[in-house]
Amino acid sequence: MSAAMDTESTYSGYSHYSGHSKKAHRQGRDRHKSPRSKDGSRSEKSVTIQTPPAEPLLGNDASRAEEGQDDNWGETTTAITGTSEHSISQEDIARISKDLEDSVGLDCKRYLGLTVAAVLGLLVFLTPIAFILLPQILWRDDLEPCGTVCEGLFISVAFKLLILLIGTWALFFRQPKADLPRVFVFRALLLVLIFLFVFSYWLFYGVRILDSKDTNYQGIVQYAVSLVDALLFIHYLAIVLLELRQLQPMFTVKVVRSTDGESRYYSLGHLSIQRAALVVLENYYRDFTVYNPALLTASKSRAAKHMAGLKVYNVDGPGNNASGQSRAMIAAAARRRDSSHNELYYEEADHERRVRKRRARLVVAVEEAFTHIKRLQAEEQQKAPAEMMDSREAAQAIFPSMARALQKYLRTTRQQQYHSMESILQHLSFCITNNMTPKAFLERYLNPGPTLQYDRDRWFSKQWTLVSEEAVTSGLQDGVVFVLKCLDFSLVVNVKKIPFIKLSEEFIDPKSHKFVLRLQSETSV
């Protein structure tokens, strides 16, 4: 109870300081926005979309103002804001609306394909049963008696249909992972093959058995058994084409993210371009670090600062064109390029120094906070019931002691948009429940993880567009390049074929390993 009261008083102080700091933060943000409107670097068609202010732990404005803050900032003032801004143009909004319309079409196409496959599968399973039951219904009195062999065929048909049902469920009835732009060629060919196969069996059954009212019932049952056997072989063919064919690696693909140049290599088998793109995206969410656009703003702001320091004066009068001014600016920028690397070096060194300092403060704060928690044993829980807390209450009790250090570190490393206060409390409660160390708790924040580690609403890549010069249903070939685009960045995929390796063998006789010691006068031997 006392820990809960301390937590409530801490959060009340949190909100008191936040009220004063939000006013100063809002005035500072207005000062930051005023020169940007004069600069004219943004398009006139741009709009600003603001996310709800209650979710992020820290806003992006704090990261923009970080360069002008010293290491002692925040000792007496704590600012918590939730404004996250992303600017996109009207063309991007139009493209988003077009993608939504296309997604509606993809849903209709997906449900249509599932409906056709379900109807065809139902027809396949009911056909052998219909072959056996129709003679019993239509001309039962004229049929020859079914002997022991015929009754044994009933058991064979029943078990084969059960095996076919289980195999079909395991191979085809899966939760779809993605909506592909085109149909899967091999699956479509299998559906066409099954339809033609069942149609031909029905045609033969109608002409030779229904029209003539064949009385050999054992032969009719044998005909149904042959149909089930053929369906089992088609299912085996489906396993080979859909699953086994792509297992052997044949190509190596290099995936490069266009914004920061992060790359990975993957080995793929015989796949179409669209299915290879799906495999690349599945590995991207697992292997690539999360895309952080805040890390790219430093270089852009530095380049804009260098260009803003250049002034061009037209001494020849207003009659000259703007090409001379542009050439003068390029020449001046080239002359200043020799000294710009020093500024870059000292900026990066200062940033690394601040990151190391705030990381050390965070590690110490978290270790001290974890020392105040002790897991009670079963016999100790009966002695002091008033002081017991669950993992959520314990996380809320120790979080204020580490909150400021964690906030300042996330601002410095520009990770604040990926971690909300609720997600940090949940992670802290999870670590306390599973008796994890402070180092295990800090692993998520000290090193940026893959995209799957964060909440889905923090992802900058949810809907992708496949761009390829080749048909997306064609197979991978050496030298094929395709691009996966999303709203903020793209993945460039370059395909290379694994070379043919010629391996020879050379035999060495174990008895040939004989050596002689060569002595010289200079040696000590």
From TrEMBL:
Domain of life where this protein originates: Eukaryota
Family indicated by similarity: Belongs to the Vang family.
Record's compositionally biased regions (Basic and acidic residues): 36-45
Pfam families the record matches: Strabismus
Keywords recorded for this protein, A-Z: Cell membrane, Membrane, Transmembrane, Transmembrane helix
Name assigned to this protein: VANG1 protein
Membrane protein topology class: Multi-pass membrane protein
Annotated spans, Disordered: 1-86
Transmembrane segments: 111-133, 153-172, 184-204, 224-244
Chief subcellular location: membrane
Compositional bias (Polar residues): 74-86
InterPro entries noted in UniProt: VANGL (IPR009539)
Record field: compositional bias (Basic residues): 19-35
UniProt subcellular location: Cell membrane
GO cellular component: plasma membrane
Keyword rRNA-binding: no
